[in-house]
Amino acid sequence: MTALNDLADRYVDDLAELDPCLASAMGVTGQDDRLTDFGPQAVWERTELARRTAKELQSAAVTTDSERIAATVLGERLATETALADTAAYATLLETLDGPVQRIRQAVELLDQGPDTPWDALLARLGAIPSTLLGLRESLEAARRGGRVAPYRQVVRNARDCLDTRPYLEGLSTGPDAGVPREALNRAVAAANDALTRFAGYLTNELAPLAPELDALGEDRYQLGVREFLGTRLDLHETYAWGWEELHRIQRDMAEAAQRIAPGEPVPAVLAALDGDPRHHIRGAAAFRDWLQELADGAIADLDGTHFTVPEALRRIDCRISLSEGPAVYLAPSEDLSRPGTIWWTRADPDALIPTWTVPGTMFHEGVPGHHLQLGTTALNTTTLNRFQRLACELHPGHCEGWGLYAERLMDELGHFADPAHRLGMLATGQLLRAARIVLDIGLHLRLPIPAGTGFHEGERWTARLGRAFLLEHCGLGPAGFVDFEIDRYLGRPGQAIAYKLGEKVWLESRDAARRRDGAGFDLKRFHQQALDLGPMGLDLLRTELTRADRAG
Predict the structure, then answer these.
(1) What is the share, in percent, of the chain residues with pLDDT greater than 70?
(2) Is 320 helix (H, G, I), strand (E, B) or coil?
(3) Cβ 206 vs Cβ 145: under 8 Å
(4) Cβ distance 397 to 229 under 8 Å?
(5) Distance CA 81, CA 209 (A)
(6) How far apart are CA 450 and CA 147, in angstroms?
(7) Between 516 and 117, residue with greater pLDDT
(8) Biggest CA-to-CA distance, the chain
(9) What gap in Å lies between CA 214 and CA 315, rounded to an integer?
């Protein structure tokens, strides 16, 4: 083992010990009976780990090409973590998608494996929820004393998320017989729910009255988000303009696709007709889960051996339903493969009628050839990637989400949207929404004006109200609860929402550059394998590595 790999391994172990919730999301085992301490001292310790590791990295020997890439990836991540801490970017801690409240629930859900649930670990995590929330409250109070309070929108969203978690936890104690005494499980659930209720009350009654209404964080903080989530630096005004161009291109594609389904009908009418078409409906979460599983299995069977090689360990995806709001989420297999790659599909009502015409594109994004193949291949690559690289996919959304969106486009190129409704669904919920996110995420945080010629409140500056109206009217997006979640998500996590489309842009441009470089020798399957073998990284490094002359066929 080289000194560099040894350093990377130690960093993973130390980070997992200091952040068990992140460790679970990354697939690191060994911390499953603990939750992350979100108190001020623990937050400081995680930053000090990044500083200490960065200093050690400077003296680590780098002798091979793979070591050069590994050192760059780790160094960039550590520098970003330090910059975020130095600017107190997350001092207020609360956000919509991946903040402490959301990670606490996810950490419990990851252990909830039906008959295979490790009940002792799950019971320990339930028991840790009260103290974890006390630590989070202590950090929020320290930030408040320093004049920092999360925007009102994030405070009330997190209060609601706390209350929405309670029914899920109650289901753990009223479900099938567990592998721990029922009395102990009931006590742990009751204590956890009491803590969640009290924390929601604190957010609502004490923090919300002090929370600022203004959500926009400005260009400097936004550029730090771009660095964190994309690993690049952008001309934000130029990118904002490109987002509008891409949005209009996709709208033209949607109009053409809609004409194939219902000639002469406008796009909104076609979308509404598909929502009401019984041929594209499934009743109930259980039947929907079975349909998802069949869709996932079919994609693997079709692609393995043609445009990709799907390792044996990745030929099964666990499709699951989470009774909550939010987007579909993929979690890579655990490091030891004891937990399979899992897609969580959210549904608020287990008995509702579920439209399916938008689902295949998302499944290709989350499953194969998307995240499941990408992150699973990375986790299995012990030959050229060190442990940090194999497990750090969560830390590089531009790379990972860009690949997921690229996977949707690729499946269209390969003819896997045979049903015109499924292709329109991919355009409407995959491509259009991700382009709209560029416009909205940058526009909201920089409070930019809406350009002339867009047909939507031209000349006005973006607000949350206009963003919501844009998603409902301009993108045909609904229901209203999902739209509200989207707006809260953008304003709570600057830069994350643009990772999809800009990451896809780098993947497509790099593939085109490799095709020009290799000429007649270009092989798509080989390109994909080389790309996945690189492991996760920032977009600037990804573009450089994929287009290097010495990677030619």
Answers:
(1) 97
(2) strand
(3) no
(4) yes
(5) 30
(6) 32
(7) 516
(8) 68
(9) 47
Q: Is 304 helix (H, G, I), strand (E, B) or coil?
A: strand
Question: Which of the four pLDDT bands, split at 50, 70 and 90, describes residue 175?
Answer: low
Q: Which of 217, 222, 92, 220 is nearest to 157 (CA)?
A: 92
Interval 433-478: pLDDT, tens: 999 999 999 999 999 999 999 999 999 999 999 999 999 888 866 6
* Confidence band for 1, pLDDT divided at 50, 70 and 90: low
Residue for token digits 């790309």? 531
One-letter amino acid for residue 520 of the chain: A
Is residue 354 helix, strand or coil? strand
pLDDT at 395: 84
Calpha distance 448→191 (Å, rounded): 46
State the pLDDT confidence band at 258, using cuts at 50, 70 and 90.
very high
DSSP state, residue 329? E
Split at pLDDT 50, 70, 90, the class of 117 is confident
Residues 147, 158: Cα–Cα separation, whole Å = 20
Beta strand pairing status for 342-346 and 329-331? antiparallel
Residue 150 Cα distances to 21, 110, 140, 144, angstroms: 22, 28, 9, 9
The span from the CA of 176 to the CA of 436, in Å, is: 43
Distance CA 89, CA 167 (A): 32
CB 64 within 8 Å of CB 166:
no
Planar angle of CA 319, 320, 322, nearest 5 degrees: 150
Phi and psi, residue 206, nearest 5°: -110, -40
pLDDT digits (tens, 9 = 90+) for 121-158: 999 999 999 999 999 999 999 999 999 999 999 999 99
Kindly tell me the sign of the dihedral angle through the C-alpha atoms of 511, 512, 513, 516. Answer: positive
For 324, residues 6+ apart whose C-beta sits below 8 A from its C-beta are: 164, 168, 346, 348
309-325 burial string, b = 16+ CB within 10 Å, else e? ebeeebeebbbbbbebb
CB 202 within 8 A of CB 218: no
SS3 content of the chain, % helix, strand, coil (to 5): 65, 5, 30
pLDDT level of residue 479 (50, 70, 90 thresholds): low
Calculate the CA dihedral of residues 405, 411, 414, 419 and round it to 10 degrees. -130
Beta-carbon count within 10 A of 58 CB: 8
Token representation of residue 86:
């130095």
How many residues comprise the chain? 553
- Tell me: the pLDDT tens digits for 43-83? 999 999 999 999 999 999 999 999 999 999 999 999 999 99
* Angle separating helix axes 524-533 and 371-380, nearest 10 degrees: 60
Alpha carbon distance 309, 22 (integer Å): 29
